[in-house]
Design brief:
Elements: E1 3-12, E2 17-19, H1 20-24, H2 31-38, E3 42-44, H3 52-67, E4 76-80, H4 91-99, E5 105-109, H5 115-128, E6 134-141, H6 152-155, E7 161-170, E8 175-183, E9 191-192, H7 204-208, E10 215-216, H8 218-240, E11 249-252, H9 257-267, H10 278-281, H11 288-298, E12 307-314, E13 318-325, H12 338-366
Parallel strand pairs: 4-5, 4-6, 11-12
Antiparallel strand pairs: 1-7, 2-3, 6-7, 8-13, 9-10, 12-13
Helix pairs in contact: 3-4, 8-9
The structure holds acetyl coenzyme *A (ACO).
Acetyl coenzyme *A (ACO) is lined by residues 29, 33-34, 37-38, 112-113, 152-153, 156, 191, 216, 218-219, 221-222, 225, 255-256, 283, 285, 314-315.
Length: 367
Amino acid sequence: MQYAHITGWGMSAPESVMTNDDLSKLVETNDQWIRERTGIQQRHIAGPDQFPSTLAVEAAVKALTIANLRPTDLDLIICSTSSPEYIFPATACLIQDQLGATKAGAFDLSAACSGFIYAVNMGAQAIRSGSIKNALIIGTETLSRFVDWKDRSTCILFGDGAGAFVLQASDEPGGVLSAVMHSDGSGGNLLTLEGGGSHHPATETTVHDGKHYIKMDGNEVFRFATRVMASATQEVLDCAGLKMDDIRWIVPHQANIRIIQAAARGLKLPMDRFIVNLQNYGNTSTASIPIAMVEAIEKGQIQPGDKLVMVGFGAGLTWGALAAQWTGPLPSKGHVHPEQYRTFARLRSLVRRALRFIEGLLYRREL
Ligand code: ACO
């Protein structure tokens, strides 16, 4: 029996920070309202040269370094994102190329803010089935590119960032213990980004109508979120045969402190059992859970052996939870330096493009 252990972790956030006071210069809002209604104090905003794949690769290199794994050891890359660079190619393939993960299959997963939980579950299932050994799971977003900076009900909420886990197969019990995934497409209209898909391809009209911006019914999403956070947590514990007392930490999606407080009340748990860092990042969508995890590990809050639940909700509507036992890196020999592989990866990518170009010329001549 193979278990899927979380053996590496890393995060990345753009250096540029936007405070609530900065926002109050763009829309009619103020620091007090945003803090009281959401808990958010600042968010990180990607610069013009930062994309979901660039943030993801930074997080991934850190995760691979901790796991002591080469990019070429990866069998699978799953990138959860709702702000992909393109409709296709998948952001996961851009990451695969930038890392030089030559053996890995790569695909994107779209489940909004629940996506990281879905993606870790998919990676863990592939490991448990015995079909792969090493997976890289990434949540990455630059939702700031899709925010309407004139809409005060949404622009205050979102921030950019990425988080990554390495999952590895081991005979030792632990790692991902159970997961639940849910959806309710009847609520799809509550949180949307309609423009640019095949229903509303980009036209002057879609731009004029603001269809390329995030639209949200905040109150409805709030009600849905407070309902499902506690129930999904309880459900995933039941699946793993665990009780609430077995769990040291709950790592919730970082959308709004009031949603997390409602989940705490629903589960009859004190707030100090919840990892919260939304004050510094805002809602980074699918990246919020891994960013919160990485910070908590780095601060020494999450310790090897701790059992924890990650729980999230998002557009779709989607929601889900995952129970895991934190183990840390597997024992390994020697030290690999995944960062160095990035230079080889760039070179390899250039050579492959050049070869493809030459092949194309030769093929045309043969015709
Ligand atoms: N600053 C000042 N006032 C504001 C602001 C603002 N930024 N935004 C709204 N208001 C006003 C409203 O206009 C309203 O005024 P009115 O009473 O005169 O009409 C008042 O504040 C109350 O507005 P509500 O919308 O009722 O405020 P609420 O307390 O519900 O907070 C919020 C709004 C923060 C959006 C909340 O509903 C929320 O967090 N919802 C969940 C959002 C969420 O989690 N989304 C992410 C999903 S994950 C994903 O998939 C991306």
